[in-house]
Design brief:
The structure is a homodimer. Chain A is an alpha/beta fold and about 350 residues long. Chain A has one domain (about 15-345): TIM Barrel (Alpha-Beta Barrel). Chain A has 12 helices and 9 strands. Chain A has helices at about 25-30, 45-65, 75-80, 105-110, 140-155, 165-175, 195-205, 225-240, 260-265, 300-305, 310-330, 340-345; strands at about 15, 35-40, 70, 85-90, 115, 155-160, 180-185, 210, 245-250. In chain A, the strands form 2 sheets. In chain A, strands 1, 2, 3, 4, 5 and 6 form a 6-stranded parallel β-sheet that branches. The first copy, chain A, has a 3-stranded parallel β-sheet with strand order 7-8-9. In chain A, β7 (about 180-185), α7 and β8 form a beta-alpha-beta unit. The radius of gyration of chain A is 18 Å and the shape is globular. At the A-B interface, α2 and α4 of A face α2 and α4 of B.
């Protein structure tokens, strides 16, 4: 087993991945010294299908006990690091798994789900996704209640794929800091999927977290994006929202077939009477930039952040300590913990 | 808070209750020194309804944190005792909550369910209940698979309400010791709901547990049953299956309205076109014997067991240590623990 590259006091955490999970991927996590990963377990799956996905993860935990372990709390990240494993935290990229049934939020939390997006790309009962930006009327009344319930049980509101107004509403309505687990500033790469400076500022002011995405469509120059450009973007983002509110959310989809990205995009639109939308035809996963193809490449990002002027403490924060702090005050019942970083970021 | 009546090394555990849960009941548990209770959370409820019942228990845990706590493992019983609380273990009295979906067994286990009856009173897809004894063809093929899955995840097969052949089948087919969490010998009180000597013998030979019921319809002389008669029955049962395989499973239904017992009995038979079965008309809960009306009366049973000749160790075993040992080897994954008592009882 490759030794962890981080010091005793530091964590390396990836705030979002959706790989085709395998021993290879888990060994690369160990090679990269990755102590925890927020793993997407559902997009368009309903509650029962999501349960099946959780059981499939249990089989992976059974099969690879020396590589991975279930992640439920910040303490589990320390346990994972101390035992040379990666803690896997569950999240969903859509509200579909809760089926508009607010009680299922607590049930999903009991089963280990720690992040949920209020919407994926399109409009749903709780919020509007970025591709329907024109019809974004913000977080719905049901969405407001869902946020309150997520706040109560300790499930992070994730607005990575949501449109601007919905995202700003969620930041304002949530009593606990929220996350944009995987996105970049739209000022760097102009796409509705990335976030405006207004969103980033509001996120930082409330102690929320941004995880920098390494998905090529979120990067300047796509697959040709350089590590230096990525890290300079991180430095500019720190000026907007504070380095202590930044992390990595790589959106690594390693090993997924192209059919998966078409399903991600068309999941809620397609039925047997609907032709495949033009936006989906022929779409596939782009190549990763050559400096981040697998989890094993994680140390290179730390080096790049240092090279653009981040201090060792700031770099360690972005590589995982900030997510660790956020995990510590986000996953328990609302009354049990205080969002310390909200004050720090104020 | 009343001090626990048991010594440092002993536990007091009730192997089944279905009270109308309240602060009064929980305070009586503390008064009786009860460290753990297996609480029924569902009879005829489907999966989604059972989830709601679990959430209702979570609200009780939130509301009475100084009196009760969730019970998931034998270690939790020690924690409860050491902190002056009662650990509540979830169980269902029917297979309905799993909806014939074997994957839901693991999901229910993840949510804390540690006991499940293969059937309630009537025939179902997994086994036959005692009131349909005439049509008992034993554990079904689906039931056999359910047992295997319960064995795998660490959920106890409970045959309290099942008919003779189904019960014997379950004892034989289960790779781990099973439980009859609440029943008495039919030789003492003749009712199909109680268990034959053949069942008791097979149960003991495989390290299974019998919890003595204090529900009047399972007692000789009903509500007039004396403590002495109950304890003499316990002594005779120990001769059949070993004192180390005996516990209490009081079936206490304190505070439940009579409508509940009618729902228990007719749950799977009644629909809007079906007249109320004669067996259910006018049925209500009988009065408890005057020596066991609430959890606070638990110490009196220990005294009674001693009076009929059980040693201090045997009495402590029946009052809770035997359940504690059974919990320790029953609730984890199949490969993690050995059924030590099976050898002891052989």
């Amino acid at each position: 087993m490759t030794a962890s590259t981080n010091g005793d006091a530091n964590y390396v955490i990836d705030g979002l991945q959706y790989c085709s999970w395998s021993e290879t991927v888990f060994r690369q996590m160990r090679a990269g010294g990755v102590d925890a990963v927020h793993a997407t377990i559902a997009y368009h799956e309903d509650f029962r299908e999501t349960l099946g996905n959780i059981l499939a993860w249990n089989r992976l935990f059974d099969q690879f006990p020396s590589l991975i372990m279930p992640g439920r709390s910040a303490e589990d990240v320390a346990t994972a690091r101390d035992t040379g494993r990666t803690a896997i935290f569950f999240g969903t990229q859509n509200c579909k798994p809760a089926e508009h049934d607010l009680e299922l939020i607590e049930v999903l939390h009991l089963l280990g789900v720690r992040f949920m997006q209020l919407s994926y790309n399109s409009k749903c009962a709780w919020a509007t996704g970025w591709v329907e930006e024109d019809q974004d009327e913000g977080v719905t009344e049901t969405g407001r209640r869902a946020i309150a319930e997520m706040n109560r049980v300790g499930m992070v509101v994730d607005m990575s794929h949501s449109a601007e107004r919905s995202t700003l509403d969620a930041i304002e309505q949530s009593s606990r800091p929220i996350a944009v687990s995987h996105a970049n500033p739209s000022a760097w790469r102009a796409t509705g999927r990335n976030k405006s400076d207004a969103v980033l500022k509001a996120l930082g002011e409330t102690g929320g977290m941004l995880g920098f995405s390494l998905y090529p469509r979120h990067l300047k120059d796509d697959s040709d994006c350089t590590l230096e450009s990525f890290c300079e973007m991180a430095a500019r983002t720190a000026e907007i929202m504070g380095a202590e509110n930044l992390g990595i959310g790589s959106d690594l989809c390693q090993g997924q077939p192209d059919a998966v990205v078409r399903w991600m995009r068309s999941g809620v639109w397609e039925d047997e009477d609907t032709p495949t939308p033009d936006s989906v035809k022929g779409v596939g996963f782009p190549d990763q930039p050559d400096w981040f193809r697998t989890n094993a490449d994680m140390p290179g990002i730390a080096a790049g952040l240092g090279a653009v002027g981040f201090s060792a403490t700031e770099t360690a924060g972005i590589m995982g300590n900030n997510w660790h702090r956020f995990f510590a005050y986000s996953f328990g019942p609302a009354e049990a913990r205080e969002p310390a970083a909200a004050a720090a970021a104020g």
